[in-house]
Amino acid sequence: MEEKPSLSSALFAGTRFDRKRFAGDIARFRTGAQPAAPAPTTPDAAPPGPEKKRKRKSKANAKKNSKKKKKRADGAASASDAVEGFSVFKGAEAKEAAEESVEVEVREDEDSAVVRRRKEAEREIERAAILRKRYDIHISGHNVPAPLESFEELVSRYDCDSYLVGNLSKLGFQEPTPIQRQAISILLSGRECFACAPTGSGKTLAFLLPMLMKIKPGSKGCVKAVILCPTRELAAQTTRECKKLAKGRKFGVKLMTKDLSQDGNFKDMHCDILVSTPLRLDHAIRKRDLDLSRVEYLVLDESDKLFELGFVEVIDSIVKACSNPSIIRSLFSATLPETIEALARTIMHDAVRIIVGRKNSASSMIKQRLIFAGTERGKLIALRQSFAESLNPPVLVFVQSKERAKELYRELVYDDIRVDVIHGDLTEEQRQDAVDNLRAGKSWVLIATEVLARGMDFKGVNCVINYDFPESASAYIHRIGRSGRAGRSGEAITFFTEEDKPFLRNIANVLVSSGCEVPSWMVALPKLKSRKHRVDRDRISFLTDED
Ligand SMILES: Nc1ncnc2c1ncn2[C@@H]1O[C@H](COP(=O)(O)OP(=O)(O)OP(=O)(O)O)[C@@H](O)[C@H]1O
């Protein structure tokens, strides 16, 4: 805003003000302090009145604006004849002149502060760009905060509590992964985000850490954060990870079990953080009066799967139930199709999009192979052969349905290997046991349906076998992503039959983009209209009708 010319500026127009002579007074104006030389305590030097105080206050702001100028003025004051200068205050014109001069300086100070801030901002943008290039982070959105250089920045930049930093180091997390570097700074700055990063790249910590920094442990009946996961196993795993990270703080971290969803008394429950699958949460909102209006932080993990499962309306109603206007929402997945992103954008405000590496690609730590097995029977022979040659447990074997999981289990259970199975017909306890047994090394091979493909973190899975060809490229990426996690290497073998051949193209392209070799005819196959591939397969049995 342009200032009106003051009376003094009109009076002094064209008059040269002797700055050197009045330097002491200028300094006094600017700093609000006594001049450097001893000021005479003459009766003329009356204590400043309210008006003088007001003016001094505004000049004190000038002091804040420029330490450099203060230094210069102080130097000038000590060099000048302070006594002579002081006497000039008696003259109103000189006083006005001094004020005018200081105003000019203040403007100069402000200008240089603006320039300095701009330069700092430019340096920050440059630093952020270098970090993003180094860690293969791609963003879209405006004013995106710089990625973290290290976990130490959580303290220096974001004032992170020491218990959390301690827990990070106890868990062995020394350096943030690329997705953690960028997503954490974005979420801590209060922005919403879509994040797409490879399987096993640490997305869970990327949303848990800022959540624990943002919310405070509270009282009964007030849920502050909600994490939605597509499967119960993943929800249980995320709850466990959250508890480990929150250790030492009195956060109420709850997993939405079936019992809780049906009979929970949420009003009397200390639950700061709730981890749930969509249907159970929806049930609790509708039937158990679960109030989510104070939720500050909402995460949709494996977000594409959440929307894909036909839960769009359920998710929509959960998002609406989290009605706090200052809520921070985020979406995480290793695959984020355009359609899902567009859908999600309709519920986000000014969200930043983060992609680590190439969008919708497999982890580069996995050695991938496609093996032609001819027929269903051929697949069983190939599997047994592969186990006989080299069984390097733990191994995960994916099939397309629970019936087929049971069939394959029946075939392998009498072989000389420790095999287990997990599918939707088992109780929650049995499913959890199967997961725990693989983790503990009690079973070597776990036969699984799609239920285990998303998010499950088995650190040492050496090999994933796609016994049944996956129904889409994203299903493939998530299944094989159970190995090659957290910087470890892994292997993925995918069997295909004559029936699967027309659907090879999508998967072959994933292999190519991760640098694995595939025969050229596979990528040259015609593009299919339908992306999904789910065939009716013959029963898994070594003894077929022909035998
Ligand atoms: N900064 C870190 N340093 C070392 N290990 C880490 C770090 N962050 C996470 N991890 C470990 O990496 C593994 C994979 O992490 P996480 O399960 O979060 O991956 P993800 O990206 O969510 O994978 P998915 O897409 O399959 O769900 C976990 O075992 C986790 O403990």
Short description:
The chain has 547 residues and is α/β, with parallel strands linked by helices.
Task: Write up what this structure looks like.
The protein is an alpha/beta fold and 547 residues long. It folds into two domains: 119-356, Rossmann fold (3-Layer(aba) Sandwich), CATH 3.40.50; 366-523, 3-Layer(aba) Sandwich (Rossmann fold). The protein contains 21 helices and 14 strands. The strands form two sheets. Strands 1-8-2-7-6-3-5-4 form an eight-stranded mixed sheet. Strands 9-14-13-10-12-11 form a six-stranded parallel sheet, sandwiched between helices. α19 (473-480) links the parallel β13 and β14 (490-497). α9 packs parallel to α10. The longest helix has 43 residues, at 92-134. It is globular. Residues 1-18 and 24-91 have low confidence and may be disordered. Bound molecules: adenosine-5'-triphosphate (ATP). Adenosine-5'-triphosphate binds at residues 173, 175-177, 180, 197, 199-205, 334, 455, 457, 459, 481, 485-486.
